[in-house]
Design a protein that fits this description.
Helix 2 runs antiparallel to helix 9, helix 4 runs parallel beside helix 5 and helix 4 crosses helix 8. This protein has two domains: 230 residues, Type I PLP-dependent aspartate aminotransferase-like (Major domain) (Aspartate Aminotransferase, domain 2, 3-Layer(aba) Sandwich); 124 residues, Aspartate Aminotransferase, domain 1. The protein has a seven-stranded mixed sheet with strand order 1-11-10-7-6-2-3, sandwiched between helices. A three-stranded antiparallel sheet has the order 9-8-12, with no helix packed on it. The chain has a two-stranded antiparallel sheet with strand order 4-5. The protein has 13 helices and 14 strands. Bound molecules: pyridoxal-5'-phosphate. The site of pyridoxal-5'-phosphate has 15 residues, from helix 4 and helix 5. Pyridoxal-5'-phosphate binds next to helix 4 and helix 5.
Length: 369
């Protein structure tokens, strides 16, 4: 079976380094918020060219704590998309704020800035764009709108580690950038992990405080914080992953270009790259009018393509109460019926990729007969 993502292949490719790092941590006697975590925070911040990085327990917490650090909570509204991981909306609800869903630009799968004016109310406090599948949301109009209306911008970079918009690394454009290190992400741990990054030293201090019970220097709580710490083991492994992130992303781009070339005229709508950005292909998401039939055909032939995301967040039970401005999001709802993610991970072999391509071509032939 050819998998859609494959962190185990990533482990096998770097087994000696990862095993040595794991051993080093076990021998060190320090397991939570030690030197591995602080080194990883510094290295990740340097990579992004941003002053502050705060390691957290997972990506959902990164978004939730980013909202809290910005003082956003009950009574506030946060504009985001519905074509995303449920975690994006869950983090907003967790903060006490109300998600307001807007539609996407269908070719890019990211927040459509033209929808912002209609979603704005006196309660709007932030915009939470998602750089989905590894592609940047169109940040310029989003940032312009946010500045005009005095809103915070929190970037969901869970799928876009290493991605760029213009010259800037994604996560450095808004007030806070949030990452997940879930194993399948472009920078993946072997367990849970997350990170929030910011230029603002006040926000950084607030995030550090919130991640550990809201403690101040003396260990007395100044906020009702949480426990959301990255452990030493994951940090040590993530440091290795970070050193390969550019190489891995380059390999994802190579695979994407091959799909682009060989899947033309197969009935698939192929991903469109935003010209000003660097797409890092967390997923190679295509669209097809007979998506479910194609998915079944791929499965039958040993290719585990996946659907991210088959039910838009605003149509899932916990989130139906937070209607979008119009109640419907036509582009989001259409994409949910057509979208499909093909196998994409740095260790995907040329032979396996060819099998994916041939299987799709065979489906095209069958359906035209
Ligand atoms: C993975 C993901 C998250 C959540 O990250 P976790 O580490 O699983 O909590 C949030 N947003 C997006 C877009 C994601 O892909």
């Amino acid at each position: 079976m050819i998998l859609c993502g494959n962190p185990h292949a990533g482990y096998l490719a770097r087994k000696a380094e990862i095993d040595a790092a794991v051993r080093r941590v076990f021998e060190s006697g320090r397991y939570i918020l030690g030197e591995e975590v602080s080194s990883f925070e510094r290295e990740f911040a340097d990579y992004l060219r941003i002053p502050h990085a705060i390691a957290l327990g997972n990506g959902t917490d990164a978004l939730y704590l980013a909202l809290r650090a910005c003082g956003i909570g009950a009574g506030d509204e946060v504009i985001t998309v519905s074509h995303t991981a449920t975690a994006t909306a869950a983090a907003i609800v967790l903060s006490g704020a109300t998600p307001v869903f807007v539609d996407i630009e269908p070719h890019y799968f990211t927040l459509d800035a033209e929808q912002l004016p209609a979603a704005l109310t006196t309660k709007t406090k932030a915009i939470l764009p998602v750089h989905l599948y590894g592609q940047a949301a169109d940040m310029k109009p989003i940032l312009d709108f946010a500045h005009e209306h005095d809103l915070r911008v929190i970037e969901d970079c869970a799928q876009s580690a290493g991605g760029e918009y213009g010259e800037a690394r994604l996560s450095t454009l808004g007030d806070i950038g949030c990452f997940s290190f879930y194993p399948t992400k472009n920078l993946g741990a072997y367990g849970d992990g997350g990170m929030a990054v910011t230029r603002d030293s006040g926000l950084a201090e607030q995030l550090r405080c919130l991640r550990q019970y809201g403690w101040d220097e003396s260990g007395s709580s100044r906020e009702a914080g949480v426990n959301s710490r990255l452990d030493e083991l994951q940090a040590a492994i993530l440091r290795i992953g970070l050193s390969y992130l550019d190489v891995d992303n380059a390999q994802r781009e190579v695979l994407a270009s091959r799909y682009d070339r060989d899947l033309e005229n197969t009935g698939l709508l192929l991903p469109v790259r935003r010209l000003t950005s660097r797409h890092v292909f967390h997923l190679y998401a295509v669209r097809h009018l007979r998506r479910d039939a194609l998915l079944g055909h791929l499965r039958e032939h040993g290719v585990r393509a996946l659907v991210h995301y088959s039910v838009p967040v605003h149509l899932q039970p916990p989130y139906t109460g937070y209607a979008s401005q119009t109640g419907t999001l036509p582009e989001t709802e259409r994409v949910a019926r057509e979208v499909l993610s093909l196998p994409m991970y740095p260790q995907l072999s040329a032979v396996d990729q060819e099998r994916v391509i041939d299987t799709i071509k065979a489906f095209g032939k069958e359906s035209h007969d």
